[in-house]
Amino acid sequence: MRVVANRLPVTVTRRREGLRYQPSMGGLATGLGAVFDPGRDVWIGWPGVPADRLSEREREAVEGGLATRGLRPVHLTEAEVQAYYNGFCNRTLWPLFHYFPSYAVYDPRGWEAYRAVNARFAQAAASCTGEPVWVHDYQLLLVPRLLREMGVRAPVGFFLHIPFPAWQVFRLLPWREEVVDGLLGADLVGFHTYDDALHFLEAVRRLRGAESHLGQVVVGDRVVRVDAFPMGVDVERFARAVERPEVRREVERIRRELADQRVVLSVDRLDYTKGIPQRLAAYDRFLANHPEFRGRVTLVLVAVPSRTDVDRYAALRRRVQEQVAEIEGKYATFGWTPVRYLYRALPFPVLAALYHVADVALVTPLRDGMNLIAKEYVASCTDGRGVLVLAETAGAAKELSEALVVNPNDVEEVAEALHRALEMPEEEQRQRNAAMQARLRSSTVRAWAERFCAELERARREQETLERRWLDPGRAEALHAAYARARRRLLLLDYDGTLVEIADRPERATPDPEVRELLARLCADPRNRVVLVSGRDRDTLDAWFGDLPVDLVAEHGAWVREASGPWHAEAQVEPEWKDKVRSVLQAYAANTPGALVEEKATSLAWHHRGVDPVLASVRARELVATLVQLAGTTPVGILHGKRVIEVRDPRVGKTRAASRWMAAGPWDFILAVGDDTTDEELFAALPEGAHTVRAGFGPTRAGWIVDGPRGVRALLARLASSGPESPQPSPTLPGSEVQ
Description:
By secondary structure, the chain is α/β, with parallel strands linked by helices. The chain has four domains: 2-228, Glycogen Phosphorylase B (Rossmann fold), CATH 3.40.50; 235-439, Glycogen Phosphorylase B (Rossmann fold, 3-Layer(aba) Sandwich), CATH 3.40.50; 473-571 and 652-720, HAD superfamily/HAD-like (Rossmann fold); 575-648, Alpha-Beta Plaits (2-Layer Sandwich). Helix content is 43%, strand content 19%. It contains 25 helices and 29 strands. A nine-stranded mixed β-sheet has the order 5-4-1-6-7-8-11-10-9. The protein is elongated, with a radius of gyration of 32 Å. The relative contact order is 0.07. The model is unreliable at 726-739 (pLDDT under 50).
């Protein structure tokens, strides 16, 4: 496996005495440490020291020292780090993705630096062996697509560790299309929560018009899987930490210093997304509302320094210091300090000890992809005591529902949750923690990494299966040879999306001269029986193909017609249900700009080809739900096809219509070509040995896949080139004499 991340799990620093290698801080290094094997895998990232601060000899030493750990550095100059990381990553993507659009800066120079550095990372990954690639986080959103452009065929996974914003926020990014295209280069795109996954899929629909099915999106000749993979923690490490002597010493020291105080713990990087000022305001309100707790509770506020050279962060630090001083001034006594403020990173023994002694963990970020602090605290409550107060805006809230979940912007709600936490009976604490701990044990950080890797391998297998179905020149030649040998052939061809591209309005998808010529050439061969099996109405098919010697199936099998013969009904029209359904479809069309209703003799269709993709998705779900209720009292079938919902007699279908021609056999060559749901049903119903072809890439029951209508036309042209032989009588369809 090749891991590609902004930082390596080891940070290199240049000291007077030489180069120094230290473990990097952060959840990613911890998380991947569970599955990363230095002897087998390669981790690609920036080593933490600007390249222009190193001599050539030192760079070689860094590369050699890291290579022994399975690490490969991407060297960046100080200017590149400033423009790419401190610039575009943290002044544009970070605030926008965390729902602080007013903080975002849209600098084209920062974007160009971001593109250039992403290309450097992609080049480093592409130069490795053909193992799976796992790309991480918002700093490298373009890498998956770049890898594809560099010819990488290995499986590529991407995981975003921060939120993916809703469309109304994401659309503000001037380079939104490039970002979405970058992620769509992956085979598997992972997020912490389903909300984030749905936000990404909405962006894909709006920007690329691609619909998803069960979290899968077809992009060209690939299927991209999108799913949620909530990151866990090393539960045993935190649960057993108190058994370590150095942690026990810290526990004893903290208890001596705080005496009989109840402890409320807050641990965060000092960042505006973490909601620290709002948290302090809530603590202030708590002390004001519940004076009985003054002198009995202490807030331990740990703020890890972050981006100290950025003005906004410096201003945040001053604000926090002022709030702490204000609380001290209002409530402190000679024997009691209401806030213990620690502006520094804590070593693991101290952090683990604080988790162990804390009565309450106050975790209230304004927006967070996951927040592992919450999970680490719950894992540390080994005696069952301790209460987690958690913001609903943290990804962890989706899993830790037994916490006291609050709106971090509601000062009064957070203050009252803090009071409830301090008053909560121990038995209730144990019940809540037991449920959360059981969940954490089943979804540890190792399980997170292993599940993602397993899904990436599954995506690889499915992609290879689909690629094996591509009708390449060799397979097309074999198909042509079978066609040429056959004496009696049956060709079942769909129209919309198969012979022609789907148009924004149904009436615009008229057959061009090439389609008509292809059909005429195929029909001219007396060995062929050519059947157009379409959802179109009779009048349209007559107008477009009535002068050709081709058999026709209209309205998905409601009507059939042999070449130049009369139409025969396969189902009786029942005006009662059409009246009911028509009013429903018209009501939805009236409230959905771009939608239209098409009426056929035996069916009604609600087309949403010209509707905004996201609105179309919402309206289509609502309409189907309404029609399902209606179907409970009305004998109708509901078909959700490509950009259309069709209501028809449930007794008709392409499979039933095609059976009439099948019964006219035996045929020694059967070919069915289509692109939609009804065609998939037909593929499954055909006998063994039939040749089935899907127009367009994607999951299918067909034996072969071609590149949409263009590929279908090329295939049919190759077959038609065989030329006709002497005429033979065409079989008569069973039951064709029945009107």
